[in-house]
């Protein structure tokens, strides 16, 4: 992703300072701050406080956290302690556990003296893989956008609606839902993106910041406007990310996604989900019944963050003093409402057959 002409990933290893550096997303879009992640507590805070956020980016961050743990103490006991310490930071995005499990499986068989080097290499590999997975998702999603564009008068934009930020900032690079947008834009296909604000943390502002940096036309809308826009034929396609998709294609994503899917179905608008395979939880069938939904601090709902008149970043309370807030951070869209899953291996139906067709190695393992 380019920021003022400079390419950035969302996290990177600073070899000179021998430390992981991240973009601290808590202050975006108003303030671009890069911070080091130097201790295990820094890693836990970075994930829980959403300094880094987004399922794939959380996974890559956790892998670097395991690498730090192996530098500090490469014992089995510390590996398990690091796994537990990091895994408990956020319960819903499966990429966190996926990355920690992958690290532990790769490191456990190694002599302790080799673990720190191997862990660091694996974290870098997971980050690089994420970039390539998302690039491929973009290429497959581009073809869907291209098909929609071909049916429109020349020059008329393809109108996409997206919820939350499944963008470059939610991954190491490209984004998942935004990758097809970036690639379509670069291919010269006219786009217009309706960007859901996505209360309560307003990750839509991150998406607006990204799209603006990339020159993609967009409009920031309230979460409740999408159904109206679809009713009036102003949306050609909905595309979102996911934090965990089950083997039968149920999609867990930011709270409010389910409502968008319902409106899309009611208005005949295709609803696609950009799905990197590490976000598939092959152990879960029924997402509504089985996926743990993170309940975050009510202050995220009772207050809102923004730039104050003095130019600083502050919070204001939007509710009466003493009003209780409820803050489930995700919901689950049943696979019946999903038009298709855009993975790095291609597009498939949101079904066990669809996913096992693209990922037979997992289907066989489950038998
Ligand atoms: C590419 S996955 C992004 C996914 O993660 C977001 O959640 P959060 O901002 O709480 O980490 C949101 O659900 C996005 O769709």
From TrEMBL:
GO terms (BP aspect): L-methionine salvage from methylthioadenosine
A UniProt-annotated Pfam family: IF-2B
Catalytic residues, chain numbering: 243 (proton donor)
MF term (GO), any: S-methyl-5-thioribose-1-phosphate isomerase activity
Family of the protein in this entry: Belongs to the EIF-2B alpha/beta/delta subunits family. MtnA subfamily.
Function: Catalyzes the interconversion of methylthioribose-1-phosphate (MTR-1-P) into methylthioribulose-1-phosphate (MTRu-1-P). Also catalyzes the interconversion of 5-deoxyribose 1-phosphate and 5-deoxyribulose 1-phosphate. Part of a bifunctional DHAP-shunt salvage pathway for SAM by-products.
Name under which the protein is recorded: Methylthioribose-1-phosphate isomerase
Species the sequence originates in: Pseudoponticoccus marisrubri
Taxonomic path: Bacteria, Pseudomonadati, Pseudomonadota, Alphaproteobacteria, Rhodobacterales
């Amino acid at each position: 992703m380019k920021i003022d002409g400079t390419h950035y990933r969302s996290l990177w290893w600073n070899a000179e300072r021998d430390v992981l550096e991240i973009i601290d997303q808590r202050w975006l879009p108003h303030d671009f701050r890069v911070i080091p992640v130097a201790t295990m507590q820094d890693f836990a805070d970075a994930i829980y406080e959403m300094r880094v956020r987004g399922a794939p980016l959380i996974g890559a961050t956790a892998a670097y956290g395991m690498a730090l743990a192996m530098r500090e103490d490469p014992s089995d006991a510390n590996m398990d302690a690091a796994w537990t310490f990091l895994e408990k930071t956020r319960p819903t995005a499966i990429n966190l556990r996926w990355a920690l499990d992958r690290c532990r499986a790769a490191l456990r068989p190694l002599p302790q003296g080799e673990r720190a080097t191997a862990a660091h290499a694996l974290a870098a590999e997971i980050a690089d893989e994420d970039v390539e997975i998302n690039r491929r998702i973009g290429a497959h999603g581009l073809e869907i956008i291209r098909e929609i564009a071909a049916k429109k008068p020349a020059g008329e934009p393809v109108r996409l609606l997206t919820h939350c930020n499944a963008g470059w900032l939610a991954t190491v690079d490209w984004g998942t839902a935004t990758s097809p947008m970036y690639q379509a834009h670069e291919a010269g296909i006219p786009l217009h993106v309706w960007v859901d604000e996505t209360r309560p943390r307003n990750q839509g502002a991150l998406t607006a910041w990204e799209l603006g940096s990339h020159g993609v036309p967009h409009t920031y809308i309230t979460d409740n406007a999408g159904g109206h826009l679809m009713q009036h034929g102003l949306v050609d396609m909905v595309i979102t990310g996911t934090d965990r998709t089950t083997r039968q294609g149920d999609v867990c994503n930011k709270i409010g996604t389910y409502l968008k899917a319902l409106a899309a179905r009611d208005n005949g608008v295709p609803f696609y989900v950009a799905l990197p395979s590490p976000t598939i939880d092959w152990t879960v069938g029924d997402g509504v019944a089985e996926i743990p939904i993170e309940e975050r601090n009510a202050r995220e709902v009772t207050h809102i963050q923004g730039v104050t008149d003095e130019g600083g970043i502050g919070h204001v309370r939007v509710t009466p003093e003493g009003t209780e807030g409820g803050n489930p951070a995700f919901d689950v869209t049943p696979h019946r409402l999903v038009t298709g899953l855009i993975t790095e291996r291609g597009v498939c139906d949101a079904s066990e057959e669809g996913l096992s067709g693209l990922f037979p190695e997992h289907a066989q393992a489950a038998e």
